Each structure stands twice: as structure tokens, then as C-alpha cells.
Task: structure prediction
Amino acid sequence: MDPVKLLGLVVLLALCILCQLTAVHGGGDGGGVGIGRGCKFSAVYNFGDSNSDTGAISAALLEVLPPNGESFFGNPAGRFCDGRLVLDFIAEELKLPYLSPYLDSLGTNFRHGANFATGGSSIRPGGFSPFHLGIQINQFLRFKSLTKALYNQLTPNGKRGPSKGKLSRPEDFSKALYTFDIGQNDLAFGFQHTTEEQVTASIPDILANLSQAILKVYEEGGRFFWIHNTGPIGCLPYNVIYYKSKPGTIDENGCVKPQNAVAQEFNRQLKDMVLKLRGEHPLAVFTYVDVYSAKYALISHAKDLGFVDPMEFCCGSFYGYHIDCGKKATVNGTVYGNPCTDTARHISWDGIHYSQAANMWIAHHILNGSLSDPSVSIGEACHYPKHV
Result:
């Protein structure tokens, strides 16, 4: 064959292969999830508890009080924090707006996703909040169904009726990133009402509920999942305060070892669950994110990183009695409950939730993929494992 013709055939064949790959995995040009450097997620849908609640608990049950939000938003902004949460840093990393809570009826914008997380939520029913994960999933199903129905009724630009501008686009549901940050309250509620052994025994059932929830999203077309494990619950200052310590139960960082051991067992089984889902559903991408290691590293190196003792918290008080963040009490002429003035040096904001400074550090160490399985950054969490 003529060498020129042969070269032409080789080039044509290469172009055909490239076109097939692009058709299967997307072009990476912003119109969908691609095989390029970034996935360009157009939306995020989050499920979780107070660690990622951006205003649901305020809208539904009880307003989050000042000084929450003081370090960034200038007002509480529905977050149990002085500023941004890890979820907010996820949005920033993906160049998306902060997620509006599904339960909030005012000022919401769902164009780039929605947040179903609610403070106090657990995976299983019967915990601290009525908005357990099953309810959040049902809310998502209704949200998705109504969004599709309403989207087709509205005008493109609002000139002759309501605009589509703040609605999720129906085609984005299959391209979105679905984030899960929940499970801590299942353990916390168990510690309060049962024994550590009973909490450990409940883990398989807790994770069975989580797996079912994830599969419901998968059945609705979700394909990209970013799943956080649970943090070192034994390092939360209020857990340390209320824990009746026995010799050898507090570690070198002041954390409750038995509670952290249960959290680690939860995470071990959670990772196995994620790997099983990955094996059973090869057309989806399941990323397991080791938040525990990031948080424990922060607590372990607090002094070296410029933070105060990680067991000190900034908002609220505990002097033989508990004063919630945002409230004050006068005892023998002394006012308790005033927040600290150096929020950026505290890891714990209120004894239960992390400060903005801590959340920023944690986000920096998990979003790059160094603590994930597979080891991909959140901006590349659309790639199937065989292409990682």
C-alpha cells in the first residue's frame, strides 16, 4: 500500500478511537462530565447532618443564633460554625455557589444543586432529628420529580412568566456529584443510650440503611458519589467532658479512645461497603473519603499548626453546666457564654462542631484526593476506577 495512504488510514483510525472515547466519557468542554483534567460538575446534591447543614435546621425547627457565622457571613447563615463548612469549601473548589438548603423557602437557588442535610440527622430513624437519611432521600426524589415537571412549564428567560434560572436542570441530575457526610449521630445517639459494644453491633444495620439510600440515588440516575467517613467522635470536647473516664481510656491527645475505636470500626465497614457498591455497579464512581484521618491529624498537631488546645472550644461554656453557643448565663455576677476573640486559633467552635479555620484545613487535606480511595481529587471524581 502507498505509504501516504497507509499513514492516512492510521491517522483516521486514531481519530475514530478518540471520538469513541469522547462519546462514551464526555468531551470535557463544560457541556458534561469529561475525561480531561476536571469533571466540571454542574451541580452537587448533599445528604448529611450538622457538619454540612447550610440552613435546614434553622428553616425547619430552631434558628441558629449569633455568633454563628461571624467569621465569614456576618450572620448565622444557618451553619453551626463561625463561618464556612467543609461543604462550602467543596462548592468553592468546584467553582459552584454555596448550596441552598432544601427546607428553606426564602432566598433559595437550586440551579447548581441542593442540600438535604439537617442538623442532628442520622442514617437510621429514631435519633436526634426527624430528618433521618431516609427522609432526606424521599425529599430528593420529590425534588427531582417536581423539578422536571416544573422546568418544562417555565419560560427560558422569565419574560413571559417565571424563569428557569434558579431551578436545577433536569439533565444535570445524571451529571451531578452526590455527597454524603452522615453517620456521626448514629454513633453519638448510641453512646448516649446504649453501650459501646451495642453501638459496634449496630454498625452493619446502620450501613445497610446507608447503602439502600445510595442505591436509590443510583436508581434515579446518580453516578458520581463522594462519601465521607465519620470523624474521631471521641475527640469532640463535649464528648470528652461528659465521658466518665476510666484509667487508660483517654489518649495522648485527650480523646476518648473507646469512642474513636468504634468510629474506626464504622469506617472500616463503611469502606468495605463502598468497595462492594463499586464492584456491583461498575458504571458508577464511588469515592471513599477518609475525613477521620484528616481531623485526627489536625487535632494531633494542633500546637504545631498554631491552634490552641483542641479540647478548648470558642462558643458556649461548660463550668459544671452547659451553655449552648449563642446563649449566656450569669452566675454569681459572672457572665458565661461570651465567644472567644481568636476564632481562627480554635479547632472546635462550640464543643461539637469544627471552626471555619479547622474546616478549611480539613478541606484542603481531603479535596486533593490524598486521603481518598481511589486517590483522585474531588474535581476528578467522575472517572471510572479503571481509568484512574
